[in-house]
Amino acid sequence: MRPAGRADTASLYFTYPQFEAPKGAARAGLARDVAVAIVGAGPVGMVAALTLAQQGIASVLIEAKDSFNDGSRAICIARQSYAILDCLGVVAPFLEKSLGWTTGRSFYRGQQILEFHMPDGPEEKFRPMYNLEQQFIEAYLWQAIEATPLIETRWRSRLEGIEIGDSGARLTVADPEGSYSFHADWVLAADGARSAVRSQLGLRLQGRNFEGRYVIADVQMDHDYPTIRRALFAPACRPGATVLIHRQPDNIWRIDYQLGDDEDPAEAVREEVVRDSVAAVLAEIGHTGPWELEWWSIYSANTLALDDYRKGPVIFIGDSAHIVPIFGVRGLNNGIADAHNIGWKLGHVLTGKAGAALIDSYTPERRGATLDVFANASKSARFMTPPTRGWQILRDAALGLALTHPFAGELANPRQMTPFTYAESPAVLPDDAGFAAGPAPGAAMIEARVGAGFLSDRLARGGFTLVCFDPTLARAVEALPGTPAVACLPWPSAAADRLGAGHGAAYLVRPDLHVGARWQAATAEAVRTALDNLCFREV
Amino acid sequence: MTPHEIEQVYEALAEGIDRAAPEAPELYLARACLLLARALPSAEAALAAIAAAGMTSTAD
């Protein structure tokens, strides 16, 4: 929502492009069969299309709207998402524009009770978190899509129907010039929380709705505070509530405040009410200068997910598969990881590098990640919005105690963000007991300094990489057909120490930067067998 | 005690209060305090914690 008199896309800092539906000669191919259709050209759909393109797979991207999403929406992009964007070769404009941060501060009744620092250091290529308005996220992904001939985007094209058949699905699409249908072998549903694909197929999200409702409002102002996330518990301006404040590029500040049980949501989003609420928060943080209201929205803290992220040839990615509370900043980040995960798997299957069973590992891996978010989000929600008398008493007691006892302040730590470990996945091999350090199979590969760059710079983009330390092993692996790229690192080295690796050790890293297998004494044959197993190849 | 263990205690108390309802939370919490005090090595430790809790009263 925007102030009266301003259109939905009349932003103070962003010019929305206007996209056209397919025209002229482009219409001739609309009804042709395609290998992959992606419904929804938001950030998740675009990451899926770029991941498939990196695998050499063409896709058709269908979007009902004629521009990017309205408003700043998902503003926190986590380190692992930047690693994915880097892997796709598109991270540069993100780094240029976004604001990296490591620190959060929590306040109770105006007093600081906690300052937390997310893990960071010179061995990390990316900061733990970056703030960037979602319009820019979409615009930068779109730049890359426009430069990729393998992706055909159809704007102003609404999915009207989908029918699952023996060898794929038939999609019916309506655009301003008419409607048509076409066959897709695979469909990725990236069409968001109100997914048309999901409702067309009669699938329902399962889970629970928390009671708490929050308004998010963006203001533009000159405000002198570093990029540190502030959480205000029981502030004077909203005594029973929690307020979050984030800095974004272009002097935009996100104010996120909880509504009381007695506040009517429809009334709370009226412009005058939003202005009064924001003014009270700004007074609380000592901002006395002018400010302009940019955009606002309302949300509730739900934890909902599909039981299975796949139905035949249709695979759900992002919010169509799961809705998580936004204060955990896992909505977009998990969506990006979903898109990257299915993208490489589908790409490997469609190019004959992997067996079809690889696709079956998508739901356990990514739904597992969602359930992990739910567990953390439920804790955060219970702290920010205590659901019962018991939780309320303990929360208030902890906050009061935190003024003088730092241990109690730790209970307010949101514990944002370590990438989920795919411990139970069929696309991960058992660990080698010989490791005392380093990421186990299923975990995200760690970052490390290697020479003048980083370990991640040495990983194959879109393919498997064997990270090893013994040049003889590296040569033996390179000599075998159908084996992964090899990154042979110095030994001894800081990287080897962080990986807990002896001279003969090796890590097999999947295209999504998660560890697939590791050995203290690797052999070329073991590596090849592992790769066959991880790719479900019939041998 | 690790932060994770503190969190377990926090959660157990919150759920304990709710389970004890409609009994007043202070009765449940007082019982918990007495049992926790009994588990401490000395009365001094219990009395110090009781005094510290009183010093961070959040009443307006």
UniProtKB/TrEMBL annotation, chain A:
**Which keywords has UniProt assigned to this entry?**
Monooxygenase, Oxidoreductase
- Please give the Pfam families that the UniProt record associates with this protein: FAD_binding_3
- An individual GO BP term: 3-(3-hydroxy)phenylpropionate catabolic process
Q: Name the Gene3D superfamilies for this protein.
A: 3.30.70.2450, 3.40.30.120, FAD/NAD(P)-binding domain (3.50.50.60)
- Gene Ontology MF term list: 3-(3-hydroxyphenyl)propionate hydroxylase activity; FAD binding
Q: Could you confirm whether the keyword Methyltransferase appears in this record?
A: no
The record's listing under InterPro entries reads: FAD-bd (IPR002938), FAD/NAD-bd_sf (IPR036188), PheA/TfdB_FAD_monoxygenase (IPR050631)
| All residue ranges annotated as the FAD-binding domain in the record | 33-370
PANTHER family hit by this protein: 3-(3-HYDROXY-PHENYL)PROPIONATE/3-HYDROXYCINNAMIC ACID HYDROXYLASE, FAD-BINDING MONOOXYGENASE
- Protein name (database record): Monooxygenase
Q: What is the lineage of its organism?
A: Bacteria, Pseudomonadati, Pseudomonadota, Alphaproteobacteria, Rhodobacterales
From TrEMBL, chain B:
Superkingdom field: Bacteria
Q: What is this protein called?
A: DUF2783 domain-containing protein
